[in-house]
Amino acid sequence: MNKYERRRIALKSLVDRLGSQSAIQEKTGIAASSISRMLLPEGSKHRKNIGEETVDKLTAAYPDWIASYDDLTDDAVIVARRYMQLMREDSQLKARSFIEALHAAERHEEDILVATQNERKNGR
User: Less Cβ around it within 10 Å: N or C end of the chain?
Assistant: First the structure.
């Protein structure tokens, strides 16, 4: 599955969750006709891929819209894009908070890993 197909599936899930394409149009400014074309299955004659600009618009409006459909590499790209977007919006405080939250999550994962290793050493 390529990145465009993952994006299509994630967009379909978002439409299903929100109940309509018009909700996305209102919040992002992406035309409903474009959304419809993006949702067409791979190989369809009039299908439109979801490009980087559209990903940025969707991520700005719905930060988690694609998170569960991307692999680690794409997640890193999404994090970087979100960080850059926050910086462009002159929201340095938000950007710092976002990075601090990422570091806290990493520390939490490290703590869990250490605890698991200690349990294994102690024979639990």
Answer: C
Alpha-carbon torsion angle 7, 10, 16, 17, nearest 10: -140
Q: Domain boundaries in the chain?
A: 3-90, 93-124
Q: Is the pTM of this model over 0.90?
A: no
Long-range contacts of 79-87 (CB under 8 A, 24+ apart): 81/55, 81/56, 85/56, 85/59, 85/60
Alpha-carbon distance values, 59 to 11, 22, 29, 119 (Å): 11, 17, 13, 39
- Place 85 in a pLDDT band, splitting at 50, 70 and 90: low
3-state secondary structure of 19: coil
| pLDDT-derived band at 71, boundaries 50, 70, 90 | very low
Average pLDDT of span 55-71? 80
* Interatomic CA distance for residues 49 and 61, integer angstroms: 19
Answer for the pair 61, 27: CB distance below 8 angstroms, yes or no: yes
State the Cα–Cα distance between residues 85 and 51, nearest whole angstrom. Answer: 16
Q: How many CB atoms lie within 10 A of CB 88?
A: 9
